[in-house]
Amino acid sequence: MGKVVAVTGNEAVAEALRQVNPDVCAAYPITPQTDMMQRFGSFVNNGKVKTEIILTESEHSSMSACVGASAAGGRVITATSSQGLALMFEILFIASGTRLPIIMPVVNRALSAPLNIHGDHSDAMGARDAGWIQLWSENTQEAYDNTIQAFRIAEHPDIRLPAMVCLDGFIISHSIERIEYLDDNEVSNFVGEYKPVNPMLDIEHPVSYGPLILPDYYMEFRKAHDAVMSKVSKVVLDVAKDFEKISGRKYGLFETYRLEDADIGIVILNSAAGTTKDVIDEFREKGIKAGLLKPRLYRPFPYKEIGEALKHLKAVCVLDRADAFGASHGPLYIDIASSLYPYEKRPILINKIYGLGGRDYMPGHAELVLNELVEIAKTGKINVVKEYIGVRE
Amino acid sequence: MATTPLTLRELSKKEVLLTAGHRMCSGCGAPPVVKMVLLASEYPVVAANATGCLEVCTCISEYTAWKIPWIHSAFENAAATIAGVETMYRSLKKQGKIDKEIKFIAFGGDGGTYDIGFQSLSGAMERGHDMLYICYDNGAYMNTGIQRSSATPFGADTTTCPAGSVVPGKLQKRKDITKIMAAHGIPYAAQASPSHWQDLMKKVKKALEIKGPKFMNIIAPCNRGWRSATDDAILLSRLAVETCYFPLYEVENGATKITVTPREKKPLVDFLKPQGRFKHMFAPENEWMLKQAQEDVDKEWEKLQREAKASEVS
Ligand SMILES: Cc1ncc(C[n+]2csc(CCOP(=O)(O)OP(=O)(O)O)c2C)c(N)n1
Ligand code: SF4
Ligand SMILES: [Mg+2]
């Protein structure tokens, strides 16, 4: 068995990366990720890992070096936040389109302008359709566990796609929580030896990566990528089963909390789910049947399973920690709405935008939302579908 | 390592690693440059290629002209990409998972090197990766249709800075990329030309024997962009050397050495005249352009000679 520790999110993810012991890491500083890669750099320089580290001159080059290193034939990591992820945008699609299982923790932070270093989900949401797998984490334990599982998922022979592990900037990355670490050998046995596919360093079998594909074949590549995406859910569940065996901790595609018999519900990602669960308990004590759904695998989005889990509710509020400017609603809302669309009888949906740029999400916000849902469930009437909360008028 | 003598007889016995059948324009200067570079290596080579003519024309659908492991990722990141490959090599070698000696080369056009890939190149050089970066310099963004780059020579007519009635083509000088790379303090930076193939291959051989980051800028005429005769690539690259527009030199551990000194320095117009992109400079009202272009070349050539002299002394 592993040991119980009190650590920050960044520390725990760095520890998971040390235990996985990748072949190459590319790193570039950005708040709030910085101290994760600082920690990893110190593992490298103190001989705690076999990893070769590339301290690049930008995140664009970090992701580019990851593409080269992964195509060369080994296990590759990097990590970033916010502007760094935005700068990588072009290469994210190259990593996924080339089917390279690079693992990247994303410590979620707001995007400029205005400049803000605090937590929200704009960065990862902006990259949600880049063909990567995205696992989201409520707390430090989940961030640690997701990081370890991400390698198995991404490297699975049916998948071979890069994966981001998202955790909330500062709220998780810099807060100390009590968590359980696995033993080093449990982690290394769990992730196993890396199995390269068509490695560039196999000079006896030269391969060309990154061809020009014209209209006669491009769509077939995209269709193939889509087909691979559709296999991810099963692998995520299989890997979770194996992970439960070594950790005792259960993971699914998403977490439900007191949802089965609920009338009203909140859908929310990452750390704010914890606060919301406490408030749901208070409402339950008052006899109000409230519940929660927290997506874990956000890309590919498990539409069917989430639709099934939510369809019986009367009213649901999706809380988005990012906006999708010019779209009908926040990004998570749009996904939840399309999950529910196939059902003739479906909950009434509303959308709140909260917590941008590190604005605190307080129990009072969850209370307000749940009270509104109680009203909607009773009357069937909505005042406004999309609304910013916890904001000055 | 036993090296193949640089004679046509011996070189012709080696396999050409960029095969025929690629789709570069006939008479393009880039493929002979790549073939010479790969022929010069005594080691297996793994290459990265920036987006541009060379990349777009050599690997389409399931057809690849590359007989070596090769990767294209994006336009501005060939240096970072090969740095990643090279780092994985070091990691796996350290772990005993690989033992072969392999060399790492990045190919980028002038746009992918002087301009958009400049940061990625500078970073890779500073970090000291064991790699050779080769810029095949045709002096414009050719793949997208002959747009100005910072390698475009003064005066040239391009599609984004055409020779117009008010602005007569490009009014700025070329960026001196080779000296900028040498100023990174890397062990080896050089210029070469396919017209002087032995000099070119000798430089590649030398570069590949040196540990650490190396840079070479190789002139690669483009008949489409230069508006020149299809079969003039080698002739024009020779004229570029003989007019001292593109001097052949190397900077090894800080010491500059001119490797080919023209017997007689030809006037720049000999290089400009056969190229349609400079045609407007020969109009009477643009005489000043010819003059300025010649003065720039003279100044740079004198400076280079001074640097070479200073290196001799020290
Ligand atoms: C980020 C980005 N911007 C622009 C382009 C479009 N583009 C592709 S190739 C190219 C020009 C390449 O010029 P150069 O590097 O000189 O190589 P050449 O085609 O001349 O051989 C441009 C502008 C791109 N692929 N990526
Ligand atoms: S456009 Fe110029 S550089 Fe491109 S393939 Fe043709 S000749 Fe070569
Ligand atoms: Mg060019």
Largest sheet entry of chain A: 6 strands, mixed
- Would you tell me the overall average pLDDT of chain B? 97
CATH topology of the largest domain in chain A: Rossmann fold
What is the annotated CATH architecture of the largest domain in chain A? Answer: 3-Layer(aba) Sandwich
Helix % of chain A is: 40-55%
CATH superfamily label of the largest domain in chain A: Thiamin diphosphate (ThDP)-binding fold, Pyr/PP domains
Radius of gyration of chain B, CA atoms, in whole angstroms = 19 Å
Task: Count the E strands of chain B.
Answer: 10
Q: What is the tally of helical segments of chain B?
A: 12
What is the C-level CATH assignment of the largest domain in chain A?
Alpha Beta
* Bound ligand species: thiamine diphosphate, iron/sulfur cluster, magnesium ion
Strand portion of chain A? 15-25%
Enumerate the spans of chain A where pLDDT stays under 50 for 5 or more consecutive residues.
none
Please render the helix and strand layout as text.
The complex is a heterodimer of chains A (393) and B (314).
Chain A: E1 3-7, H1 9-20, E2 24-27, H2 34-45, E3 52-55, H3 59-73, E4 76-77, H4 82-97, E5 103-108, H5 122-126, E6 133-136, H6 140-155, E7 163-168, E8 177-181, H7 184-191, E9 208-209, H8 218-229, H9 232-247, E10 254-257, E11 264-267, H10 272-285, E12 290-295, E13 297-299, H11 303-310, E14 315-320, H12 331-340, E15 348-353, H13 363-379, E16 386-388
Parallel strand pairs in A: 2-3, 2-4, 5-7, 6-7, 11-12, 11-14, 14-15, 15-16
Antiparallel strand pairs in A: 1-8, 6-13, 10-12
Helix pairs in contact in A: 1-2, 1-6, 3-4, 6-9, 10-13, 11-12
Chain B: H1 8-11, H2 30-40, E1 45-49, H3 53-58, E2 59-60, E3 63-64, E4 70-72, H4 78-94, E5 103-109, H5 110-115, H6 118-127, E6 131-137, H7 177-182, E7 188-192, H8 197-209, E8 213-219, H9 223-226, H10 233-242, E9 248-252, E10 255-260, H11 269-272, H12 287-313
Helix pairs in contact in B: 2-8, 4-6
